[in-house]
Amino acid sequence: MTRQLNRRALLGAGMLAGVSACTATPTPAAPPTTSGTSRKAPPFDPKDWANVRAQFALDPALAHFAAFVLAPAPALVREAIERHRAGLDADPHYLPPGDSTPDLTIRRTAARYLGAQPGEIALTDSTTMGLGLLYSGLRLLPGQDVLTTEHDFLATHEGVRLLATRTGARVRRVKLYDDPAAASADRIVGAIKEGLGPRTRVVAVTWVHSSTGVRLPVRAIADMLAEVNKGRDERDRALLCVDGVHGFGAMADGVADLGCDFLSSGTHKWLFGPRGTGILWGRAWDALSPVIPGFDQPSFVAWQTGRAPEATTAELVTPGGYKAFEHRWAMTQAFGFQEAIGKDRVQRRTQELATRLKEGLRTIPHVTLVTPVSAELSAGLVCCAIAGMHPQTAVSRLRERKVVTSTTPYVPPLLRFGTSIVTTPEEVDRAVKAVAELR
Q1: Residues 6+ apart with CB under 8 A from 12
Q2: What are phi and psi for residue 353, nearest 5 degrees?
Q3: Which residues does 349 contact at the CB level (< 8 Å), separation at least 6?
Q4: Element (H, E) at 172
Q5: pLDDT score of 437
Q6: Hey, what's the torsion of the CAs at 191, 195, 196, 198, to 10 degrees?
Q7: Cα angle for residues 311, 312, 313 (degrees, 5° grid)
Q8: Cis geometry, peptide bond prior to residue 412 (ω within 30 degrees of 0)
Q9: Could you write out the three-class secondary structure of 121-137?
Q10: d(Cα 321, Cα 125) in Å, to the nearest integer?
Q11: What is the rounded CA–CA span in Å between residue 111 and residue 116?
Q12: Do residues 408 and 385 touch, judged by C-beta distance below 8 A?
């Protein structure tokens, strides 16, 4: 009963295991009617930024500052998806050649990228799913509470609200800055410290705010919490839980650099991985219970022997079920693509372009820059307001000028740019000129 389980054996029994699962393929949008999507990418040269951009089938006529929203995939990832899809269409027992445990391969690749261990990584389909698994699974004792901020996205706010509904825990929100452009690391850390209660169990924050582009000093927050936790019982230790989506793939920090307890991120945004894929990394899995039955080996062994698993692991937290495996298995190519370029080089490129954009925008009289100019408190998101113009109007007007942007889904909304590895300095200058012409 405890023998090694693999996918082929379980398929034969009408089940699926050995390949843990949780990706969901989004409904594909109609392909753009441009010649850009039919271009064949040149051989990959990670040292050449023009070549990196050429790996994407993006319309070359557009300056793409919203690529992070539903990110395109580079050629290596697209080819892997098509290869796996063709294999599954030809033989539903298909596995990637030479890889009988593709989910383990993904975990190993993700762990190398994160500076983590494979067993610390659950596979998800998005940041939101990861946060949902985390906040739905956390076990709170009577009297413990949750601290979050006013600046977080729906996934965090709803996640901790549902946690409170389930457990009866109190949720508090703190304000980290009044003017995001003038945010300071000391005030951010101080506000969180002041918001802590003697039995705060969960500190839920976001690495890079999608509302303003402010990047939190996660390491400094973690160090502050480490001091607070020295005087606490292990079961009352404050856990630092991070929505990492707008830092993951844009910044070079690994989990040891961040110092958090949990990090959730989609891999289909700044990492430019397959759509419908993500990870939840953790080092305190014993603090939560699985929410959805897993399909990894430990789940099947426990089920078949009639015994509950002894302890929560990342494998047990990874939701089971049949998934879009052609997308999941291509995650290895996405991590490999970024590693070939170099995490440090990706961060430098992202921030250099963001700084160039911010410096240009703040010279325009009718533009208010909201994102901090400092690279220490920002990443690739740049948010601003245009006097007398609704952000959605600005998005439409910029689109007419072949500059693709987005708005923030907050109140009040802002105009938002994202500089990334598919952006060029010339496109940044073009965007600044286009914004200056908006009246």
Answers
A1: none
A2: -70, -40
A3: 49, 421
A4: strand 171-174
A5: 97
A6: 140
A7: 115
A8: yes
A9: EEEECCHHHHHHHHHHH
A10: 12
A11: 5
A12: no
* Cα 154 to chain centroid, rounded: 14
Among positive and negative, which fits the CA dihedral 106, 110, 116, 120?
negative
Residue 262 has φ and ψ, to the nearest 5°, of: -140, 145
The candidate with the shortest Cα–Cα distance to 205, out of 147, 285, 137, 255, is 147
Does the pLDDT value for residue 13 go beyond 50? no
pLDDT at 9 over 80: no
pLDDT tier at 278, thresholds 50, 70, 90: very high
Residues in the chain, total: 439
**Both tokens assigned to 90:** 């030809």
Question: 184 near 215, Cβ under 8 Å?
Answer: no
pLDDT at res. 252:
98
Cβ contact 244:127 at 8 Å: yes
Average pLDDT of the residues in 271-299:
96
Match 């990418």 to its residue by tokens. Answer: 41
Residue with the two structure tokens 């949780």:
22
DSSP secondary structure, 285-314, as one string: GGGB--SS---SHHHHHHHHHT---SS--H
Distance between CA atoms of residues 43 and 243, nearest Å: 35
Question: E strand or H helix at 367, and its extent?
Answer: strand 367-369
Classify strands 403-404 and 406-407 as parallel, antiparallel or unpaired: unpaired
Tell me the three-class secondary structure of 2-58, residue by residue.
CCCCCHHHHHHCCCCCCCCCCCCCCCCCCCCCCHHHHCCCCCCCCCCHHHHHHCCCC
CB 269 within 8 A of CB 249: yes
Output the furthest CA–CA distance in the chain (Å, rounded): 71
Instruction: Encode 50-97 in three state secondary structure.
Output: HHHHHCCCCCCCCEECCCCCCCCCCHHHHHHHHHHHHHHHHCCCCCCC
Go through 105-121 and write b for each residue having 16 or more CB atoms within 10 A of its CB, e for each that does not: bbbbbbbebbebebebb
